[in-house]
Amino acid sequence: MVSLMKNYPLLPRIFHVSITLIAIGSAVVLASVWTPKSSKPPSGSYVSLAAVQAPTAQDSTLPSGEMEMIRLSSKGFEPAAISRRRGKFLLAVINRTSLPALSLRLVHENRRLVVTRRLGREMSWRHVLDLQPGQYSLRETNHPDWICRITIEPR
User: Fold this and answer.
1) pTM
2) Mean pLDDT along residues 124-135
3) Are residues 92 and 142 in the same domain?
4) How many domains does the chain have?
5) Cα dihedral sign for 68, 45, 48, 39?
6) Which residues pair with 150 in a beta bridge?
7) What domain range is 137 assigned to?
8) Residue percentage of the chain with pLDDT more than 70
9) Per-residue b/e over 76-98, b at no fewer than 16 CB within 10 Å?
10) DSSP code of residue 61
């Protein structure tokens, strides 16, 4: 080893720089993919899209940039009820359960299915909606007591 260092005097410096770059790269990757499970959605029913993320192409049709954020935990939907005026909005469901699969259904009071979504490993679901006035329920199929009631009022 000593003879290697005599023949290649920069070897220890290259080794230390390489290890440092690997450590920094690993920290950056971990920071970009890890989110704490204890983070809570913003309080209140209405949240500006700009505060959460940049709108996607689907979201760009939102005139007011409003979003309804619902958290799903082992206790059910939080909040359990939402009331809003008619108009386009982004419905965001954040999965904080430890379940491997969820099946979400949004149903009108007349039992008409509006939208359904199966979540596997995804931690969230976003969907732009423009619902008619009335009562709706967001449910998880395998947990009948998990319900979020959504009321859409006329303008």
Assistant:
1) 0.60
2) 94
3) yes
4) 2
5) negative
6) 82, 136
7) 46-153
8) 62
9) bbebeebeeeeeebbbbbbbbbe
10) G
The tens digit of pLDDT for each residue in 38-95 reads 444 444 333 333 333 434 444 455 555 689 999 999 999 999 999 999 999 999 999 9
Backbone angles phi, psi at 138, to 5 degrees: -100, 125
**DSSP label of 62:** -
Q: Under a CB-based contact definition with an 8 Å cutoff, are residues 86 and 131 in contact? A: yes
Same domain, residue pair 105 and 54:
yes
pLDDT average, residue stretch 143-151:
96
Query: Which 3 state secondary structure label does DSSP give 112?
Result: coil
Segments of 6-142 assigned E as strands? 46-48, 66-73, 76-78, 81-85, 89-95, 102-108, 113-119, 124-129, 134-140
In a domain, residue 9? The reply is yes
User: Rounded to an integer, what distance in angstroms lies between the CA atom of residue 7 and that of residue 91?
Assistant: 65
Query: Could you tell me the two tokens for 100?
Result: 């491997």
